[in-house]
Amino acid sequence: METVTSAVEDYAKAIYALETRDDAAVSTTALAERLGVSAASASSMVKKLAEMGLVAHERYRGVRLTPRGVKVALEVLRHHRLLERYLAEELGVPWDRVHDEAEVLEHVLSEELEELIAAKLGYPTRDPHGDPIPTPDGRIDEPPTAALHDLETGACGLFVRVSDSDPEMLRYLAARGIAPGDRFEVVDKQPFDGPLFARFDGETHVLGGALAKAMRVEVDAP
């Protein structure tokens, strides 16, 4: 059986993220955009993944991970998110920098070191950005969430996770003391994708449209 390389892991992880986000097959174009590669490169790698039995590919319909592909994706996600948590908690690396560091280290982390890190951290279930950490046997708890951007004035709930794709957004939140686990209330919302005003810990903050879309929340029942 062909070796699962770091490139294969990156593609499996990206397909998992896109497939989970949209609950649909992933197009080569979307995959290329996420990974910052050409459509031709993405198409070539998708063919390789299909040959390895990691994806099911239908021409013009996109790809989905097979059960084996999901296993590969969740294993590398477990490495990545445990590393992010370790870097943030044990080494004091700011949460806007841990993603890039973990991207490099995730491919070389042994199973033995993974277990030691998990034990050292007390077997955490979330990374610093609130993303769930898969279990060693390949299970992941992904409860439904809403984008803060989609809520209306008066909505309240719990801020649970945020995309780590834009370090500037993370620095903006950190500077204001906002982190997953904080409760919020939407105070005001401007039209046409304008900013949203939300209260955290008694203080109202201005959150731009893109940032509010990147913040995932659990909303209190009305």
Order of strands side by side in the largest beta sheet?
3-8-4-5-6-7
H/E series, N to C? Answer: HHHEEHHHEEHEEEHE
Total strand count, please?
8
Low confidence ranges? none
The share of residues in extended strands comes to: 15-25%
State the helical fraction: 40-55%
The dominant shape is globular
Helix count, DSSP H or I runs of 4 or more residues: 8
Distance between the termini: 53 Å
The largest sheet is: 6 strands, antiparallel
Instruction: Compute the CA-based radius of gyration.
Output: 19 Å
Mean pLDDT across all amino acids? 94
Q: What structural class do helix, strand and pairing data support?
A: alpha+beta
Can you give a write-up of this model?
This protein has 222 residues and is an alpha+beta fold. It is 42% helix and 18% strand. The chain has 8 helices and 8 strands. It has a 6-stranded antiparallel β-sheet. The chain has a two-stranded antiparallel sheet with strand order 1-2. Helix 1 packs across helix 2. The longest helix is centred in the middle third of the chain and has 23 residues. The protein is globular and about 55 Å long.
In short:
By secondary structure, this protein is α+β, with helices and mostly antiparallel strands. The chain contains 8 helices and 8 strands. It is globular.
What tags apply to this protein structure?
six-stranded antiparallel sheet; globular; 222 residues
